[in-house]
UniProtKB/TrEMBL annotation:
UniProt xrefs under Pfam families: PEP-CTERM (PF07589)
The Ice-binding protein C-terminal domain, residue ranges: 218-242
InterPro entries according to UniProt: Ice-binding_C (IPR013424)
Renumbered residue ranges of the record's region Disordered: 27-48
UniProt source species: Pseudoduganella umbonata
Endpoints of the signal sequence: 1-21
Keywords: Signal
Annotated protein name in UniProt: PEP-CTERM sorting domain-containing protein
């Protein structure tokens, strides 16, 4: 009975630490993720089974102003992020080409969390965004990018984060005064990894970029760690008593 109780404590701790966690590795389809333009004879986006990062992966080959990998339908990614006090977003990226008129260039990759329900100022949505990494074909191989929001209830923008939903006269975006970081996180209608960095514009560029293992996971609370340690300790104590007996 004591061993059963110990495992129950441990199971509850593990469940609390993994609540609302999600990963798309494209082995079961796109799970709601869409790239820039569907795949056709002229390029576009689709699942690629040849790229070798725990294949398959999701790949975009296109000439365009920028590229985006976005999700508007998967409730594991499109949801109220204030339901957990902190959360980590992650993505694996393979950059094979970013070329602007014959010259290799780099592009920032931005995580943008978009709320369409409370838009104003003549713009389509309100968002908060963060530059998670740089697309650079010279940086060979798969790269992992991530960002952690330490406090989803924050009113102001945390360090490194930008806001969108209103613009200065010169086009510089900012978070509207009637919105907060937390209020955007509470109503995310679309999550996007994109090179369309708010406030910036680019010319037509040749992209060949693949993504994999897109993830979102809550950061376990200190109490969860304590519960897990207690469960492990209880399992160990019971096991030792049984051995001694």
């Amino acid at each position: 009975m004591k061993m059963k109780q110990a495992y129950m404590v441990l199971a509850l701790a593990l469940a609390a630490g993994s609540a609302a966690a999600a990963t798309t590795d494209f082995s079961s389809g796109t799970q709601g993720w869409e790239g820039t333009q569907p795949l056709d004879g002229n390029g576009g986006s689709g699942i690629d089974n040849t790229l070798g990062n725990d294949a398959p992966a999701y790949r975009t080959i296109i000439n365009n102003f920028g590229i985006t990998f976005a999700n508007t339908t998967n409730a594991e990614f499109v949801r109220d992020y204030t339901a957990t006090s902190s959360v980590t977003f992650g993505i694996d990226v393979l950059t094979q080409q970013v070329n602007y008129f014959g010259q290799d260039v780099t592009r920032d990759l931005v995580l943008e969390l978009r709320d369409y329900d409370n838009a104003g100022n003549g713009l389509p949505y309100t968002s908060v965004w963060y530059t998670v990494g740089t697309l650079d074909a010279a940086n060979e191989g798969w790269k992992h990018f991530s960002v952690t929001i330490d406090d989803t209830s924050a009113i102001g923008l945390p360090s490194g984060w930008g806001g969108y939903g209103a613009e200065e006269a010169d086009g510089t975006p900012y978070l509207p005064t009637d919105r907060t970081f937390a209020s955007v996180l509470a109503g995310v209608d679309e999550i996007a990894f994109t090179t369309y960095k708010p406030g910036f514009m680019y010319g037509f560029t040749d992209f060949d970029v693949a993504v994999d293992n897109i993830s979102v996971s809550p950061v376990p609370e200190p109490g969860t760690y304590a519960m897990m340690l207690a469960g492990l300790g209880l399992v160990g104590a019971v096991a030792r008593r049984r051995k001694q007996a």
